Amino acid sequence: MRTAAEEDLPHIARLDREVFGDAAYPFFVLRQLFDAGFTLVVVDDSEGICAYALALALASEGRGWVLALAVGPRQRGTGLGRELMRETLCHLRSLRVREVLLTVEPANASAIRLYRSLGFTERRGATGHVRDYFGPGEDRLLLSLTL
Ligand SMILES: CC(C)(COP(=O)(O)OP(=O)(O)OC[C@H]1O[C@@H](n2cnc3c(N)ncnc32)[C@H](O)[C@@H]1OP(=O)(O)O)[C@@H](O)C(=O)NCCC(=O)NCCS
Q1: Ligand 1 pocket residues where CB is under 6 Å
Q2: Rounded to the nearest whole angstrom, what is the distance from the C-alpha of residue 79 to the centroid of ligand 1?
Q3: How far is the CA of 57 from the centre of ligand 1 (A)?
Q4: 3-class state of residue 130 by DSSP
Q5: Where in the sequence is the domain holding 130, given as residue range(s)?
Q6: What confidence tens digit (pLDDT) does each residue in 88-106 have?
Q7: Which has fewest Cβ within 10 Å: 102, 114, 129, 146?
Q8: Total tally of structural domains belonging to the chain
Q9: What confidence tens digit (pLDDT) does each residue in 130-140 have?
């Protein structure tokens, strides 16, 4: 597990496409997020990059976002998602982040269970379940964790 290098970007884009299909980040977006200093943590095994997380630290606000988390279908259920999240949270903490936010599809039970087990909780009231967050019918839960 390590932070990503420029040459990893095409492999992250391939994994993202495999996991998220049409909702994957286009390569040029990943490239620009990398250049802009977003945090990218990857798991690189014998077959290449099999998992990654993308995060943003807003140090002046003490706040950070986990923007993506993906484990390749063949590697799921072996603890990689949890390890990646822990490493990403550790990285955010080192960047003076004190509160981490993320959004998740309400039906994504495995991701929600993982986030809750790490201490994330749903934001109270109307901000917890955000209707049409990504457009019509694309609701998201907004979860937060104090580091
Ligand atoms: C969600 C995801 C990242 C989990 O990664 P993973 O490596 O399979 O997860 P882990 O093996 O580390 O498991 C960690 C915890 O996640 C939860 N979890 C993982 N798979 C699960 C499943 N099939 N059903 C229910 N809970 C599950 C459990 O709480 C598990 O802890 P436990 O084993 O102690 O019960 C992975 O399934 C994935 O990439 N899914 C597609 C992309 C996605 O949905 N990303 C999140 C977008 S917000």
Answers
A1: 19, 69-71, 76-82, 104, 108-111, 113-114, 117
A2: 8
A3: 23
A4: strand
A5: 2-146
A6: 999 999 999 999 999 999 9
A7: 146
A8: 1
A9: 899 999 999 99
